[in-house]
Amino acid sequence: MSVLSVRDIRKEYPGVVALDHVELTLEAGQVHILAGENGAGKSTLIKTLTGLVTPDEGSIHIEGQDALAARGLFEKIAYVPQELNLFAPMTVAENMFMPFSRSGFGTVTVSRRAMEKAAETFLTRFGIRARPRDRVGQISVPDQQLLQIARAACRSDFRVLVLDEPTSSLTAKETAHLFQIIRALRDEGVAIVFVSHKMEEIFELGDVVTVLRNGRSVGTHRMTEMTEDSLIHLMSGNNIALDERFQPRCEPGEVLLSVDHLCGPGVSDASFVLRRGEILGFAGLVGAGRSELMQTMFGFRRATSGRCVLEEREIPRGRPDRAVAAGMVYLSEERKHHGIFPLLSVRENISLSILDQLTSFGVVSGRKEREKTREIIASFDVRTSSPDKKIRFLSGGNQQKAIIGRAMARRPRLLIFDEPTKGIDIGTKFQIYRIMQKLAEDGVGIILVSSEMTELQRCASRIVTLYEGRINGTFDQATTDINTLVGAIIGARESRHAA
Amino acid sequence: MPPDTIIDTETPPQSRATTARALVARLSSDPLGGVVAALIIIFIVACCLSPYFLTRFNMTIIARSLAFIGLVTIGQSLLMILGELDLSVGAIGGLSGIAGGTLMVQYGVNPWVAVGLCLLLGTGCGFINGTLVTRLRLHSLVLTIGMAGVYGGAILVATKGVAITGIPHEISFLGAGKAFGLPIPFIVLLVCLLVIVFVMQKTPLGRYVYAIGSNPDAARMLGLRVAGIRTAAFATAGFLSALAGILMVARLGSAQPSIGDTWVLSPIAAAVIGGVATTGGIGSPLGAVLGAVIIGIIENIIVLFGISPYWQAIVSGGIVVLAISFDAVTRRFLNKGV
Q1: Which of A45, A343, B159, B283 is least surrounded, with the fewest CB atoms within 10 Å of its CB?
Q2: Does A320 sit within 8 Å of B282, measured CB to CB?
Q3: Key word Transport present in the record (chain B) (predicted)?
Q4: Does residue B166 contact residue B156 with C-beta atoms inside 8 Å?
């Protein structure tokens, strides 16, 4: 008997059918991959499995019993959401065992010592580099991510573990460790649901895959029967050439941006140039200072010394408004914190950067605004039921496309993409690569910060590597092999090259 | 859009049922629906409770007293939409009023020049608040508690707690006079409200205010001049408080040190009743002023009813809580439908 079976469920939101007759069966001791493009319905399906969303039609059975009738059964499903969801000012142990009455560490008073002792075992097991008494806000983001998984797994009564893109901020080593843990849990008979956009992970970990497309399940297959091509084909419904390259097909021109000895918090003595017509990639470990460097150039963080010159105009320190006025646009990795305006509609989010161009006599013209945003929504393929929908209800990929559309509307001279394809499906990814390539060929400077080596190799003309806040190498993409790059990223000395 | 909603409630009925249904549909689709519905209900209840409520005399009283608190409410709601709060608006209003009075009475400055200087002072006080908040990156709530002490203290230093009497008659019509059958302060309120609503709904600047309130980091990343807009909003709130302060001085014919004492908390309550979120990004100054109308009617009814002064605070506070809950419940109900 299957641990969990979903039969024929349908969920409709105003204007969208999120799930349309979806089927899913989870078996004990299997890693079940859930694949699909952004907006295919993965999140809604997961929320249905965990009892957060009640389907309009269909049934959910957990170990043979009807879970929609006896909702207590949903407690057997442990869920690790994609976003960090911890209590930062509290300790690691407290986070792990809250609510205390349920974990058995306190009904009236909390038995702190016993709890911290119990936490130790989980910390070791999950390889979390923190002590039970540390404040969660002070441990690193990967550790927080692992803690979140440990928190779900420390309850012994769960039969299903749902992991929604758990590796998005983990390094390769941490990911490998996490996979060991997942396999161990699987061998103990837990059914695992794993959502990821990373092909290597899907093929490394998965036993079975269910593909969703536009809210429908298009099939469940054994991973051994699948190839990368066939899986992508199932997800997107059309063919994508995996070996396609996106380097701009033109010779680099004059210097567009030059950064001289820039210093600031997390950035020491960074110097580089960007030429017209090239895509400059930035590689480095999580925490190597890539985003810090970009944000310091852009003025979002204040530089302590050094210069940043765009087309012979110096960008003043700590003034992102002046950087934007000079033609620099920064697309942050933190879409939720730095990108979208959650309370505003898709239309308002998009038009915000160009409102000054949409006015007549100082008044925003509703007609111009609607026309312009409709145009952007169409040309960037933002999928929304209406432009007046609040942007926070869109899937991550569609939010990202809306933000890119907004940035492009200003006709920037320099665009900085900071992890533009984080959590984004492969079809959309390639759309973004094509946009970058086209822009670079049109003479717009493009900087691409990425943790994915394949992404940098696919798009960048040159790659700058950062290690502990310093630039430690610049490589020509065409003549450099991946080992040299990886060497530079992890700070191996002999990899130092002259640019 | 929102003004239509109010007018709609007064259109002559073709048939009662269809009008009612159209009204409900209108209210449920508009963000101001909750507060307008609450206002209508409270108005009807007030009419039923006291025969003296719906009289020209009483309406004038409500309109006049609403004007002062309403002006402060506009400024405060602006800041709240930005995600800020200014607890020194009352003290700024009082200080500006006192300064105006002192200039006119003790220094013999031309009353109109004095009014101008007093508005400038209020704007300046707001500007200082805004500059301190943005430059030093202070929490506006805490900073303005301190600034309320500073400005409030300045009132006491200047007056030693004694009212300044003998305000010139030239300006007393500003507080006591009428035009087009409406009290002048109320007209000032309408004009200010109109200007601010126009800016908030029709201009890029207004949109930027909502964007900053919704996500200040993203607004900075987008290149909006967040610090400048914040400072300007504080200055505007200061200006509106000073306007309320000087109108109050004109109304009373004397500059009382206690002016503005009650202008801190009820505008915040009014804004929340009117649908402005304390966390920023949501609501409108119009809604906030409608919230102030609700509070004004409640206070008026308490007086008309002759409730013992000892009980007044409890009753008016209780009704404010009811009004907020009513709004929250309607909104949840309406959201389900959408």
Answers
A1: B159
A2: no
A3: yes
A4: no
What's the pLDDT score for residue B2? 42
Residue among B152, B144, B92 at smallest CA distance from B123: B92
- A interface toward B at CB cutoff 8 Å? 14, 298, 300, 320-321, 323-325, 329-330, 332, 337-344, 348, 351-353, 355-356, 358-359, 362-364, 406
pLDDT digits over A221-267, tens only? 999 888 888 888 888 776 566 677 888 888 888 899 999 999 988 88
Which structural domains are found in chain B, ordered by start? Answer: 42-277+285-337 (1.10.3470)
Helix (H, G, I), strand (E, B) or coil at A114: helix
Full set of structural domains in chain A with CATH: 4-236 (3.40.50.300), 240-327+412-499 (3.40.50.300), 341-409 (no CATH)
DSSP labels for B194-207?
HHHHHHHHHSHHHH
Q: Which residues of B250-280 are buried (b: 16+ CB within 10 A; e: fewer)?
A: bbbbebbbebbeebbebbbbbbbbbbbbeeb
Short-list B46, B48, B66, B231, CA closest to B136: B231
Which amino acid is present at B142? Answer: V
pLDDT band at A392 (very low <50, low <70, confident <90, very high): confident
Which of A329, A334, A343, A410 has the highest number of chain B CBs within 10 A, making it the mutation to test binding with B? A343
CB contact (8 A) between residue A341 and residue B207: no
Q: A13, A321, A388, A400: which to substitute to probe chain B, counting the most B Cβ within 10 Å?
A: A321
Q: What is the pLDDT confidence band of residue A339, given thresholds at 50, 70 and 90?
A: confident
CA distance B218 to A334: 10
Do the chains contact at B218 and A323, CB–CB below 8 Å? Answer: no
For residue B210, pLDDT over 90 is answered with yes
Tens-place pLDDT, residues A276-308: 889 999 988 777 889 999 999 999 998 999 999
Q: Is the peptide bond before A387 cis (omega within 30 degrees of 0)?
A: no
pLDDT tens track for B293-322 = 998 998 888 888 888 878 878 887 887 787
Describe the crossing of helices B184-202 and B56-82 by its angle, rounded to 10 degrees: 30
Query: Distance of CA A280 to CAs A316, A422, A463, B14, Å?
Result: 22, 18, 6, 68
Instruction: Measure B159 CA to nearest chain A CA, in Å.
Output: 43
What is the band of A272 on the pLDDT scale with cuts at 50, 70, 90? very high
